[in-house]
Amino acid sequence: MEWSFGGKTYAKIINTESFAFRVKKHQSVLLRKLGQNNEELQINKVANLKIAVRNLNGIIIKPGETFSFCKLVGKPTKKKGYLMGMELSFGQARAGIGGGICQISNMIHWMVLHSPLTITEKSNHSFDPFPDEGRVLPFGSGAAIFYNYIDFQFENNTNKTFQIFLKVTDKFLEGELPVDEELEHSYHIFEKDHQFLKKGEAFYRKNEIWRDSILKQNGNVIKTELLKKNFARVTYKPKEYVIITDN
């Protein structure tokens, strides 16, 4: 109903010819150790990523348009070729059709944070199920998706046109965010106040994600802003933590 009558103009044009100016480029490892006995789910995830990327690679986001992950990718189904992959849902990691494609929304979200695009809809997982294994981005910097009621959306409220490129290689999911004109600013994302906490028998994790806006002309930081405070239940025992009490 929102897609049809919400009054937004959604990005839908795909062009495989890239713009000249790069805003951000990033890559993430395809196969990671996440808990136990999930090798098949990890391999299936790669197949799922390849299918989803076909609907997103080269997508153009013009001024005034909204990017919707769920609208572009659609519902992951067996008929489309999606396999059982790992998904996080209702407080646990479990197998589900199309599981693992949130790796794409995580990557797009990270690139968008390095741009003047405006994030309008984003959700985080309410728990942290696995210890860090090769993590390079701050905790809580991802974007959860679950068709069709948990979406990742952003708007282009600038006068420039952006584009998203994605590619699945042998080892990595690769992403790039180009733009048709040079931006005046660059952006630096950083983490503050990261801690593991224990209260009673439960473990929690918290941090803050901040962003510097930097004027390219002279390298001066013209704005520092808090983007997100994260606080999530942890379902494993951290190596180091701070014990907290009701006091």
Describe the structure.
The model has no long low-confidence stretch (mean pLDDT 92). A 5-stranded mixed beta sheet has the order 8-14-13-12-15, with no helix packed on it. It has a 4-stranded mixed beta sheet with strand order 1-4-9-7. A 4-stranded antiparallel beta sheet has the order 2-11-10-3. β13 and β14 (221-234) form a beta hairpin. The chain has helices at 2-5, 39-54, 69-73, 102-113, and strands at residues 9-10, 21-29, 59-61, 65-68, 84-89, 92-97, 118-121, 127-128, 153-155, 162-168, 172-179, 185-199, 202-215, 221-234, 242-243. It has 4 helices and 15 strands. The chain is mainly beta and 247 residues long. It has one domain.
Helix and strand composition category: mainly beta
Which geometry do the CA atoms define? globular
Helix content: 10-25%
List the secondary-structure elements in sequence, H or E: HEEHEEHEEHEEEEEEEEE
Radius of gyration: 19 Å
Kindly state the mean pLDDT as a whole number? Answer: 92
Helix run count: 4
- Contiguous low-pLDDT stretches (5 residues minimum) are none
Give the biggest sheet: 5 strands, mixed
Q: Tell me the count of domains.
A: 1
Give the termini distance in whole angstroms. 47 Å
| Count of strand segments | 15
Report the β-strand fraction as a percent range.
Answer: 35-45%
As laid out across the biggest beta sheet, the strand order is 8-14-13-12-15
